[in-house]
Structure formats: C-alpha cells, structure tokens
Automatic annotation (TrEMBL):
GO cellular component, one term: mitochondrial intermembrane space
InterPro entries on file: PRELI/MSF1_dom (IPR006797), Slowmo/Ups (IPR037365)
Domain of life: Eukaryota
Organism: Glutinoglossum americanum
Entry-linked Pfam families: PRELI
Protein name stated in the entry: PRELI/MSF1 domain-containing protein
Region span, Disordered: 170-189, 263-283
Sequence intervals crossing the membrane: none
Domain PRELI/MSF1: 2-232
Amino acid sequence: MVKFYENSFSYDYTFPAVTLAYFLRYPNPYSTHVLSTDVIDRHVDPVTKRLHTVRLHLKRSKLPSTVLKLLPKSILGATSNDSSQAYILEKSVVDVNEGWMETESHNLEWTGVLSVVERQVYRRPLSLAATRDDASSSISSKAWNEPKVERTDVTTTVTFHSRLGQSRLLHRPHKPAPDDDPPTRRGFFQTWSTSSIQRSIEHIGVRRTRDQLVKSKEGMKIVLERLREGGLVGVLEGMRKDRETAFGGTGHAGDGGTWKRVWGGGGREQGAQQHAAADDHQD
C-alpha cells in the first residue's frame, strides 16, 4: 500500500536566493533534529551546466507514541527516551539558467517499516522568467534588498510505502493445521493484519510530514532573511547561535559531539562546501 502527500507554496525571494538558502538551511531554529550534514558528491555537468549535489543528513526524531504502541522499540532502534537516528540521502540538480531545481530525499534506514521519498521542485515562475534581465541570475546586493522582485514556487510530493510484515508473509510456509490441533498463541504480527499495520504507519508518516513541511518552510524563511540582512556571514553567525541554543555552549549533542566533530574537526570542509555552493550559484 502506498500513500501520497502533495503541497505547493511560494517564497517571496528570487530563485538564486532560495536555491542558495536550500544548501545553507542547516542548522536553523526549526531543524535542531538535524545532527550533521556531509556532501558526498558535487559537480557541474560540463554540457548542461547544471549543478549536481549528493548530501547525507543525520537526523534525530522523537518517535510518536502511536508508533511505539504498534511496534516494539527493538524493531525501531529506539533509545530509552523514545528517540531514534536515521540517515537521509539527498540528491539535487540545479539549472540556474533555466531557473529550476529538483531534489529527492529518502531514508536509508527502517525502510522495511516505512520508506519515505520526498521530491521537491523549485521553479522561477514562467511569467517572471520571461521578463527578467540577466542581472537577476546573479546573487547581488540588489537581489537581497528587493526580495519581492520575483518569487520562487515550490511543489513538494512525498510518497510513503510500508512493507512491514511482507517478507514474513512471502516466506512463511503454508501448513494446514489438523482440526484437532489446539489453538496456537498468536504473535505480534498476527494479532494485527499486515495491511492494517501498514496503513496506520503510513497515516502517521503523512501527519508528521505535514507538520515537518511547515517547520521546514519557516526555517528556510529565517535563512533567507539572514542572507538578505547579512549575506553568508550573517548565515554562518546564525548557525553558530543556533548550535549554541540547541546543544548548549559545548556546541554538541549530549553524548557526543556530532556537531563538535562536524564544526570542529570538519568545520573547514563544510565551510568550503558552503562557499562552493555560493560560487556555483554565482556562475
């Protein structure tokens, strides 16, 4: 069984501003669950001049009580405080000249419980693309000071697919029981029908995604405002403050230092990646 969720909205900022903010959106006050981001690959196609990027995000989430009732913690890998961590693979393609960006993100873990694929299309409206001048293709002070010169439309489509219990059903041998056999004790997956569990998990995924998209949009607005007010320096300063707010003065989450490793030992690499993203958008 598969469920879909679709949502469309617009940012009152130029397309170059929105696409740059997309690559600089973590961390922000609405994304404290994102523990780290790594760029796996980034290149510009020499023929199409399109920017291709592959990134890996490590995210932490609080498991809904409904899920905990449906599934044991051992299946979900939940900790004592009902939280879990998962890697999200994100792929994106940006065409600055034509004015569009396509992204696709999907979870790499717990795909047997719920596979979530999110696709987004960022596009400069065709009416504005036809009338814009060449200067609007670059990131200039005018683009930030006049954020409503043009807008950027975003369409998000999310697909949810739960395969929970399917492998058990496919590989379970069929042995008809004699009439005189005593009733056997039913296990966890037998007390609920497979389709019922799948539908319940997919509905939970839709509700959480709807809420998360609202937070994601608000986080992007904050990053866009920081870019407009202070450029890249303003964004980096905002990131520093967000880390301190989310993880305290140490700059890392309670046990570990995931942020400490990223922004301490690996900070120079991520900073270079952010500047590379800015350079790519300026080309």
